[in-house]
């Protein structure tokens, strides 16, 4: 992610290290369109829509979240999106 991707352990780590940079750079909404479940996995297909905070460049990129649910708890999230488009919108990629 151009806003500070990586590996995050636990909700506190996501809250303290990932979300501040993400929401500092982007004013977006996560819009789920479809939920697909199989066993302990749930995939959410949708779009990330909004704009960059600094330059108001529109953002509209697809995403897929793949959640692992065990013992009624969200255990893991894998997040896939068009990071090249986000990087360009944020001025951090090739134009």
Give me the secondary-structure topology.
Layout: H1 10-25, E1 26-38, E2 41-52, E3 58-70, E4 73-81, H2 83-89
Antiparallel strand pairs: 1-2, 2-3, 3-4
Shape: globular
Biggest pleated sheet: 4 strands, antiparallel
Strand order of the biggest β-sheet: 1-2-3-4
Helix content estimate: 10-25%
Termini separation:
17 Å
Mean of pLDDT: 83
Number of helices: 2
The total strand number stands at 4
Structural class, please? Answer: alpha+beta
Quote the beta fraction.
Answer: over 45%
Q: Sketch the topology as an H/E string, one letter per element.
A: HEEEEH
Summarize, please.
This protein has two helices and four strands, in the order αββββα. The chain has helices at residues 10-25, 83-89; strands at residues 26-38, 41-52, 58-70, 73-81. It is globular.
Features:
95 residues; alpha+beta; four-stranded antiparallel sheet; 2 helices; 49% strand
How does this structure look, described?
By secondary structure, the chain is α+β, with helices and mostly antiparallel strands. The chain contains two helices and four strands; from the N terminus they run H-E-E-E-E-H. The chain has helices at 10-25, 83-89; strands spanning 26-38, 41-52, 58-70, 73-81. A four-stranded antiparallel beta sheet has the order 1-2-3-4.
């Amino acid at each position: 992610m151009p806003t500070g991707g990586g590996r995050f352990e636990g909700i506190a780590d996501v809250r303290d290290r990932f979300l501040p940079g993400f929401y500092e750079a982007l004013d977006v909404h996560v819009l789920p369109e479809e939920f697909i479940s199989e066993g302990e996995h749930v995939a959410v297909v949708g779009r990330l829509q909004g704009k960059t905070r600094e330059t108001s460049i529109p953002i509209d990129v697809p995403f897929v979240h793949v959640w692992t649910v065990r013992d009624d708890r969200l255990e893991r999230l894998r997040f896939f999106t068009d990071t090249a488009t986000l990087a360009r919108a944020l001025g951090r990629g090739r134009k």
